[in-house]
Amino acid sequence: MENMDLKYVMHTYARNYTYFVRGKNATLFDKSGLDYIDFTSGIGVCSVGHGNKKLSKTIEIQSKNLIHTSNLYAIEPQAKLAKKLVKLSGYDMRVFFSNSGAEANECAIKIARKFGNSSNRYEIITLDSSFHGRTITTLKATAQEKMHKFFNPFPDGFVYAKDLDDIRNKITDKTCAVMLELIQGEGGISPLDKHKVQSIAKYLKKKNILLILDEVQSGIYRSGELFASTLYDITPDIITTAKGLGGGVPIGATLSTLKDIFSFGDHGSTFGGNFLSTSAALTTLDILSNLKENHKLDKTIKYFNKKLEKFQKEYCDIFTQKVGIGLMLGLRMKDENTLKTLIHKAHKNRVLILKSGKNTARFLPPLTISKDEINEGFKRLKKSII
Ligand SMILES: *Cc1c(COP(=O)(O)O)cnc(C)c1O
């Protein structure tokens, strides 16, 4: 299989040739039957765990009835999902569905550009170390110059701010929006300061500049709330989300208070919001909102955080700091090499973790992870230290 993969698939990923064949909640099994504790949930995607029976039942039934008809005809689960997202968010918004995080952000950028069009404003300010996607436009929105090498020319109109304080310096009479991750996912799991975010949100409102929150990673209860914006107590103009929304089925969503910004033909997607992805997302949201309502999610968050904190303190010579919110967590390490070794050893001991930024070990477990899986995962992590 490895040879076939290497021969026919483009080499864009530094793949690990472990052959996973099935999963149960936060546990993956390889083809020889060995179990792995999954603290990654496929990079924040498998929010309801692997092999979720409710989700697989929905996908089974929906795929037998209809997978896709195009957006030229009514799609009931799409309307239901939009209603559920809006109701659960508490915001007065409408939704556009796409297939990925980058596409959700593309839609947000188009909304911002159309909003600024009549006043000739088109600049969007993003933050240093941000990550907004891999398409040419969202890559340019990603304020990491090292990722831009080779791909010039890019669309104009993206301006980078060093930090929240620097945003005010970067605003011009061309600025139409500011796009932020409240918790930078790829940039080191760094939650932004709440008071600074509130202050900049207020300032932008006064200046008639849109606030876009990229919640592709932090959204869908990853922070403990449907959107991290609730924790920050702000009302953005646009929220984008994707990763955890479909429980593994590709889907992206852009929510906006500018409910009538687009006219027919301004935007669209062939696959976006089809029967399969929206019915899967509807079931995923059902499972997760129940988990939130019956306080199970809060308990899991508390337990995981306690274990992680204890682990950090026990090995404070290796882990300098615990960072993150909810189940979007990280441990800062001394340097890149120690992190690389840890991820490698952890994999050998059959617990999966991720990297974020240069030197942060990242934890994005399924939101349904059990106490036993958490305990087992940390036991294996400890073994990976010595
Ligand atoms: C993953 C991610 C994206 C890109 O999502 P894709 O589905 O890979 O296009 C964008 N923004 C943030 C914050 C992300 O974490």
Automatic annotation (TrEMBL):
GO terms of molecular function? transaminase activity
Which key words tag this protein in UniProt? Amino-acid biosynthesis, Aminotransferase, Pyridoxal phosphate, Transferase
The answer to keyword Amino-acid biosynthesis applying to this record is yes
Against Gene3D superfamilies, the record matches this protein to:
Aspartate Aminotransferase, domain 1, Type I PLP-dependent aspartate aminotransferase-like (Major domain)
Pathway(s) served: Amino-acid biosynthesis
> Which is one Pfam family of this protein?
Aminotran_3
Which CDD domains does the entry link to? Answer: OAT_like
Obligatory cofactor(s): pyridoxal 5'-phosphate
Domain of life of the source: Bacteria
Q: Which InterPro entries match?
A: AcOrn/SuccOrn_fam (IPR004636), Aminotrans_3 (IPR005814), Aminotrans_3_PPA_site (IPR049704), Class-III_PLP-dep_AT (IPR050103), PyrdxlP-dep_Trfase (IPR015424), PyrdxlP-dep_Trfase_major (IPR015421), PyrdxlP-dep_Trfase_small (IPR015422)
Q: Output the NCBIfam families linked to this UniProt entry.
A: argD (TIGR00707), PRK01278.1 (NF002325)
UniProt lists the family membership as follows: Belongs to the class-III pyridoxal-phosphate-dependent aminotransferase family.
**What PANTHER family would the database entry show?**
ACETYLORNITHINE AMINOTRANSFERASE, MITOCHONDRIAL, AMINOTRANSFERASE CLASS III
Q: What is this protein called?
A: Aspartate aminotransferase family protein
